[in-house]
Amino acid sequence: MLQQRVSSRSSQSTSKLNLSPLRFNRKLIRRRGLFMGREHVGKGVNIALGPMMNLGRVPEGGRNWEGFGADPYLAAESAYETVLGLQQGGVQACAKHLVNKYVVMHYMRLVC
C-alpha cells in the first residue's frame, strides 16, 4: 500500500517503469500526462519538472525509476506524449536530463 506524508504538494502516482503496458499505447501515455497536468493546475503549479528523459541503462543509477526505461525510441516517444498531455492539461513541461547523465559523470572525472 502506498503511503504519503502529510503534504499538499505530493502525489501518489506510480513510477513510469511500472507502467509498461502504457508505454505501448500513445493515447494512454498522453492521457496520463493530461491527468498529471490537471493535478499540477489544481495545486497551483505552472511548470512541471518532467518528464525525465535520461535512459536507465546503468542499474546503479538511483533515479532510473523516473524515466521510461533503457529503450531510446520508447523513452523518446513516451516523453513526447507526456509533454503533449501535460501541456494539454494547462501546464508547461520542463523536460529533464536531455544529456545522458552517465556521459557527463565520466566527463567530470576526466576534467576534475
Question: Which helices and strands occur, and which strands form pairs?
Answer:
Elements lengths: L25 H17 L4 E2 L23 H17 L3 E2 L7 H11 L1
Parallel strand pairs: 1-2
Helix pairs in contact: 1-2
Describe the structure.
This protein has one domain (19-111). It contains three helices and two strands. It has helices spanning 26-42, 72-88, 101-111, and strands at 47-48, 92-93. Strands 1-2 form a two-stranded parallel sheet. Helix 1 (26-42) crosses helix 2.
Ranges with pLDDT <50 over ≥5 residues? none
Overall, the morphology is globular
Mean pLDDT: 76
Number of strands: 2
- CA-to-CA gap between the ends? 44 Å
Question: Which key terms come to mind for this protein?
Answer:
single chain; 112 residues; mainly alpha; two-stranded parallel ribbon; 2 strands
Can I get a quick summary?
The chain is mainly alpha-helical and 112 residues long. It is built from three helices and two strands.
